[in-house]
Amino acid sequence: MAAATSDRPYHIIIFGATGFTGQFVVEEVARCAAETPGDSSLKWAVAGRSRQRLEAVLEKAAGRLSMPELRTDTEIIVADVSIEESLAIMCQQGVVILNCVGPYRFYGEPVVKACIENGAHYVDICGEPQFLERMQLEYHTNALDRGVYVIGSCGFDSIPADLGILYTQRQFKGKMTAVESFLKISSGPEGSSGHDATWQSAVYGFADSGSLRQLRKKFGHKPLPVVGAKVKKRGFVFFSKEIEQYAIPFMGSDPSVVKRTQRFLYEEEHQSPVQYSAYVGVGGLFSIAKFFCGGLLFWVMVKFSLGRKLLTMFPSFFSFGLFSKAGPTMKQIEDTCFSLTFFGEGYSEGTDPSQGRPNAKICTQVVGAEPGYVATVSAMVQAAVTMLNELHSLPRRGGVYTPGAAFYKTSLIDRLQNHSIKFSVRNYQ
């Protein structure tokens, strides 16, 4: 593990520890620190705007984990996104900053900037393609020059998808050229729910989708080559035999993140890029009808400032209870899990992809506990621990990367296997 020194006394600092997700990150870091006692133990601190609220978070974590020492032994750092000096002081004390303050389009950039300027590595759980891609465009060169790693989307968005494809490629005997993923979320009798902050990110992200297209033009990328047979996209709504329910294209950041990883592997590692399509199960015909009506209303409302204001004021009403200002209950979290199934195709060893249709298939799966506040925090913390232990295996000497690009040559998948996110090969039906 990278040393915590007098200059940087903490391996990890959790910024935004009082937020809904941040509180779960505090508990996960505390559990992780307990796994490595003694001189090599993980040294960490919490940071945020209010010392009083940070003390309350530590009090709550101490009670839930039966770790009374958290109340007195955990350092508190007061830092505010709007106060540049406070961010600098925070970043100067940590090796890795876990940024839990969203929506990132509003609050993320000052933290990225402070980390780069003050030599701290940065990890977030952002699912906002506009923010993620803009940080790469504007800060990659500076981060590379400063020897700082900035790694976004290290939560459920998008570690299961990004690393799931890498895992599938490694298990494939030959050259995999295309993969489809199907997300299925299962919940208990109380259903599943997300917090308001995630809803806000979606509202403002969809409202600003036009700027993402303009942003991508600035990269000047040439299209990635298509190796093997070109995969036809599915319809907007279709019945998936793979997961035995109706499915739609996945609207999250996974396709954006995966494509950036595939570009990195093509340009830096000279690997053939994989075509990728992501879908999510939505249930039966009633769910389809509800989704269509809600989705149509959402698309209309995000186009106008009044509509966006109403959407963010009443998330539970407009999302049919899928998001709320209170967030999910502990019972909902405990009863919810996810599976992300990959169906890959390609060419067996010794077969030329330019000759004919794919002749080999593979099915893999990534499964885990509740995606938003269990799998996400586990992925984020293990990404940070991997950085601390295997910095030499990350690309170049710094820069802005996706999880797949950053952790391609590390043991992160193995670490996740031991921390509630499982990767496996399945029988292809």
From TrEMBL:
GO cellular component, one term: plasma membrane
Source domain of life: Eukaryota
Domain Saccharopine dehydrogenase NADP binding: 12-151
UniProt cross-references to InterPro entries, sorted A to Z: NAD(P)-bd_dom_sf, Saccharopine_DH-like_oxidrdct, Sacchrp_dh_NADP-bd
Keyword Transmembrane helix: yes
GO biological process, one term: glycolipid biosynthetic process
Membrane spanning residue stretches: 276-302
Keyword Transmembrane helix annotated: yes
SUPFAM superfamilies, alphabetized: NAD(P)-binding Rossmann-fold domains
Keywords: Membrane, Transmembrane, Transmembrane helix
Classification via Gene3D superfamilies: NAD(P)-binding Rossmann-like Domain
Family per similarity comment: Belongs to the saccharopine dehydrogenase family.
Name of the protein described by the UniProt record: Saccharopine dehydrogenase-like oxidoreductase
